[in-house]
Structures are given as structure tokens and as C-alpha cells.
Amino acid sequence: MSRSRVKWCVAAIVAGLAATSMASCTRGAEEGVPRWPNLVTRAVPPAPLGSSGLSGPLRAPGGPFLVDTHGRVVFLHGVNAVYKYPPYELYPDPGKPWNFDSRDASVISELGFNVVRLGMTWSGLEPGTAPANDPSICRPGAPGDPGQFNAQVLDAYLGRLKQTVDLLGRYHVYTLLDMHQDVYNEMFDGEGAPSWAVCTDGRPVTEAPGRWSNNYSTAAADAAYHNFWTNRVAGNLQGEFDRVWTAVASYFVDDPWVVGYDPFNEPFSVSLLRRGDDTFDNQLLCFYVGKTMAGQATALRPAIHCPPADPAVGLIPRILQADSRHLVFYEPDIFSSRGGPNFVGSMDLPDLVFNIHDYCSYRSGKTGNPTDLVACAAQEQMTMQARAEDRPELASPFQPGGPPWFMSEFGATSNPELLTLLTAEADQHLVGWSYWMWKFYGDPTGSSDEALVDRHGLLKSTVTALSRPYPQALAGTPISMSFDARADVFRLIYRPNHSLQVPTVIYVPRAIHYPKGYCARVEDGWIASKTGSPYLVVGNAPVGNRVTVTLRAKGC
Fold this sequence. Notes:
single chain, alpha/beta, TIM Barrel, 8-stranded parallel β-barrel
């Protein structure tokens, strides 16, 4: 059988995203391949789980895990959905390339994903009218109002974004709002900042040869980033960025399906290339918390001297002041995604999540697929281990065990072997994630093979690594979790919390891994869900200190 036929066979299970519906998918009984039924595209949410289901605001009290309002440990698995061209957002708009509708939300939910990292951009929220290098904005001077903010434009943008948040919520999927950027602005073949916020200090804009990411190191992009991180121009770039974020947080403060905010995607400065030390990470800390907080010496590090024009109160405190109900998923610098050291120190603030990315250096610049699978997997596993070691060192009085952590980007590949290794590694570290990326949206700063759903609306074979069993809500403390995708065997061990009156809820990927059903066994607990349910509900035994859950294909 041809490889193209295999790909079509796997993809056809997402009939709702395909042009036509198919009754079943098989390579033939003689080959021993199970039939994978269609995933049903529905216009209504999945069957509710009642009080046992995951919903409402999540908390980050300190320690490696998020918790829900009942006190259960929460795991998030999901995908990224980011549109990098005008209108710089995804929302229901039939026939348009930025359309995101109930077919997307339904299949995302069917695959067991409970979070979408949804992109937005500063250029969409505050496009302004001034051109790049406007002298009234880019001249040196005390930061002031550049006159580019338009509340009506911002509210219209957020109104469209909320349509997507609400749509995902109807399918019991959280949204992580991501202020996305790559290479700052379209002038550098990137996206993110509006043109009026580009100040290149007279340096000519040139295009670096090769992959788009080479434009990070050009002189004009260096100046634009430097003017933003030091806030040294009259246009008050950081102040406007903070103003926009405050408006976003205020808009979504009461939304139960917003899990939190990602303030700045993959922070970059050329100083990382020149020095590779903590110079930029100190600037990043100043940006996050402000001069007042960053300048306070601690027992672990000396006082940091922030750029003089930085705001006294930084971005994260301003977000938390506008919205104390949701989490802030802050990122270290861009090179931490390839195993580089993290020098962004602890922040004495509540509701923080240490938000990491994980990519390797051994990848095709065009497709994103590994050129050396062994080396790529080893580097990405090393990155996960390094960030796992960083996390407890970020402890603060608000989060004495360090912040929880989350891997909001990884993948960007059509290589199932790599994804199988990485998702298994994430299970070993007991960390949640969101895969890059859901659909192919003509990404100008990405890779051609990054999407889980291809150009024809068909799901790729990498779904077998990504749609996997995991506990969405755990009535206890996890000890270990593993899934053998070839044998379809899942095992979870946890220490029960007998004070909780709600059960553990485990997602089971019936269509992908258990088309003929599954057998569940529980030690020191009991099963409360119906046979064959896509959510295995497990109650803890009245006594005992170790619950073991095992899933196998039917017949075990």
C-alpha cells in the first residue's frame, strides 16, 4: 500500500474537516489494521460530566501542577492556533483563511485536547496610523503617549476573538491567549508589533539570506528590539504594550474558559547572540515586573539595574491588577527552547506559570522535520530536563514550591517518531503541553510540515502520538504516567487525596487508539463511568495511599 494511501486513511477520521464524510477507514483486513471510525463533528458540546468535569478558573498555588477549584491536579493537552496575517486572529468567518468554526472546535475536543493556545498580535489590537520610524515616536526622549490607541478598534478585535473563546468553551476547551510575535514586525518578514512601533535608528532594512529566522540578527531588527526592551524612545513602546494587555485582561476577566495569558512569545534580543549571558534576561525580568520590583536585591542574586525608561510597574503586575482570576504563562528567552540556560529569576507574584518551548537545532529549515532524529530527540529531552530543574529554583513567597510549568510549544513536524518520543518524555516529567500547530495557515515564520491538519483539512498520522490517554483532573498527586502508543497501554499511578469529594477524570482516545473498546483496571479505586466512555471516571477507595489505573485494548 502506498504511503499517500496510509496518510489518507489516518486523515479520514476527521470527517468534519474533510470535504466529504466517510463511513470508515481501513488498509484492508488482510493487513490486520483496525478500522478507525469517523470522529463525529457536532454543533453541540460533548456529553457533560457534571460536577466531575473540568471547568472554571485554574490556580497555581506553587509546586509543579495546576489545580482546579476542587483542588484536583490538572493536566492540559492541546494545540496552538495562530493566524499571522491580517486580521491577525482566528474566528468564525466561513470561506476565509482565518475561519475557525465548530468543526475545528468539535474535532479538537474529540481528540481529547482541553486547551488551545490562541494567537493575537499587538498589531491587531493597536494598529495605529503612524508609519515605521515616525520621528515623533522614535526620537529619543521621555516616554509619552504616541497617540495610536483606538478603543473602538481594540474592542472590535477582542469581540471577534471572544467568539472563538466562547466557541471553544462550548466544547469544554480552555483558551490560553498568546500575544504572538516572531522577528517583531513584517518589515523583517515577521509579525507582532504594529508598524508605528518600529524604530530602526536609521539602519536600513535588509533581508538575511536563508530561513526567515536569520532576520533576527539583522541590524534594523536589532535596533527595533533594542528600542522596545529599553523603552528609550518618546513613543513609550512598553507603556503602550502594557496598556493593550491591561485592556485584554479587563475584557476577559470574567470568562471561565480563559485559562490565562502568555505575555510575549519567544522574547529575543541580539545580545543573546553576542554574549549568551544574563544581560537580556535581566531586561526581560524588568519588562515583566517593572523597575521597582526587579531592582530589589534578594538572597539569591544582586539588584538588577533596569533601563531607566522602563515602567516602574511592569507588565505582569498590570495584567494581574486588571484580572486576578486568570494565570500568567510567562516565557524565558527564545534560546531556552533549545536547552540554553534561563537567567530570568523568580518573581514574587501570584498565579504564574513557567511557560517553556522545546525545539531542536537539527531540523530542516523548510519542513521543520528532523534531519537527525536521534540528535534532535536528545536535545529536546535535554531541554525538558533543564527546564524541570529550573522550575523549583523559581520559588517565591507567593509560590513556595516554584510555579507550575507548561510546554506551550513543541513539535512543528510531521515526524511521528519524534512526537512519540517527546510526548512520552512529557508524560515522564508530568508536564502538560500544546502542540505547534493545529492547521496550516500559510505561516510566514514557521515550517511547511508543522500542522496537525494539512492543507486539505485532513488529520496527519502524527495524531497517534498527540491524541493519547491522560488525566485531565486528578484527585490526588501524580506519581507516574506512561502510554505505549504501539501497544495502546496506558498506566497512571497517583497518591489519592482523600479529602476531595470529586473523582479523577481520564480522557480515553477511543477513535485513535481504542476503536474496539478498552479495558480499564483500577487498584485501590473504583470506576464510576459507563463502559466505553471517552472519559474514564475513577473514584478513590476510602483508604490507601496509591491508586493505579491501567488501560488496554478490549480483551485484556
